[in-house]
């Protein structure tokens, strides 16, 4: 039977992602990944040049999924004609999926990457910056349309757009430190309510 | 000349804090801490039983400083008689100190601790949960007073209070991933403006 290299690579990445999110990157050894994935050192080094190369591949895959979730929320709300209502429903889309997100993982891979300078310096963190840029651009467009339609001043739309990333990451850390995954849904609800208030009143300087 | 043990302990903690925030805990060796602190292994193990004990001491000191900053902001705004205005000025207090915070550190120690399961499991993360509880209680009191004085529904005041922690931690990660420390001030400004809107309009369910 021919070996399916793609399946093996994905299995290694799945095992590594779980270990790195739980334990951190430096605290995860290649041997631990091999044991968890049920594969050999040879198979590992067939797919990855080094442990740092694995970190890069992990982050690339995670960023792709992250941007996929952004697009899913944009698509799910594309038919809403009122731009301000679309912003609110865009956030509600994530609020509704918060419990599913937190049942699949106890923290965000981005936290593990950003905790270690070796991954910041070697360009792995640049992949996260790319995700931030894509989210910022899409949400800035949503917010600008909403501000125009309601003749509101929302302040700097890019900073406000970044607050969605900030809420996700901060909520991951709140969940992790308290051991209570329901904080993710609660914090996305707080964000939705604050944005609803801002879209009704504007945001004073 | 007698050795001053307290000064030595603080010097080790200062060096370790910088290294752990930059590189992560697992990626920081005791030898690196000794070199950065200019001290000996004997001095280190006089003050700390183990590397994990160092992590606990680091986090204890950081939590004490964190709660100190909360109290400084409460004290600085204690004379403001309008409870809603006090909430806004309480956040502005941190906004005004954001650049100083970010010139002293590139990330939050909490991120390094929460990235590693060994520190979550051994009780180090419980120290962070204590800090979260203290911030939550103090800010919930501020928000509840503001909601009462303006007869507003602010939703769950504890979740809204947690959003301050969430904003700080998420903004640290935004700064770290983009290499732009000015995002801390920008995100605290976003939080202040969103809270100002909420205190003017309330937050619809």
Automatic annotation (TrEMBL), chains A, B:
The keyword Nucleus is assigned to this record: no
Pfam family, one: TetR_C_13_2
Domain HTH tetR-type as annotated: residue spans: 6-66
Record carries keyword Transcription: yes
GO molecular function: DNA binding
SUPFAM superfamilies, A to Z: Homeodomain-like, Tetracyclin repressor-like, C-terminal domain
InterPro entries in UniProt: Homeodomain-like_sf, HTH_TetR, Tet_transcr_reg_TetR-rel_C_sf, YxaF_TetR_C
PROSITE patterns according to UniProt: HTH_TETR_2
Keywords: DNA-binding, Transcription, Transcription regulation
Lineage: Bacteria, Bacillati, Actinomycetota, Actinomycetes, Propionibacteriales
Location of the DNA-binding region in this protein: 29-48
Protein name: TetR family transcriptional regulator
């Amino acid at each position: 039977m021919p070996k399916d290299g793609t399946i093996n690579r994905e299995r290694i990445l799945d095992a590594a992602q779980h270990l790195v999110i739980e334990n951190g990157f430096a605290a995860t050894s290649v041997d631990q990944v091999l044991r968890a994935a049920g594969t050999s050192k040879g198979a590992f080094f067939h797919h990855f040049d080094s442990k740092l190369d694995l970190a890069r591949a992990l982050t690339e895959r995670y960023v792709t999924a992250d941007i996929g979730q952004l697009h899913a929320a944009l698509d799910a709300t594309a038919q809403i004609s009122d731009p301000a209502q679309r912003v609110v429903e865009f956030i509600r889309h994530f609020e509704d999926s918060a419990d599913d997100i937190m049942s699949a993982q106890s923290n965000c891979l981005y936290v593990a990457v950003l905790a270690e300078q070796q991954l910041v310096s070697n360009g792995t963190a640049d992949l996260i910056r790319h995700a931030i840029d894509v989210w910022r651009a899409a949400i800035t467009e949503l917010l600008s349309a909403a501000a125009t339609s309601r003749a509101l001043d929302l302040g700097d739309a890019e900073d406000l757009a970044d607050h969605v990333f900030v809420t996700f990451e901060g909520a991951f850390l709140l969940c992790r430190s308290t051991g209570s995954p329901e904080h993710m849904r609660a914090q996305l609800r707080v964000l939705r309510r604050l944005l609803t208030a801002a879209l009704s009143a504007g945001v004073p300087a």
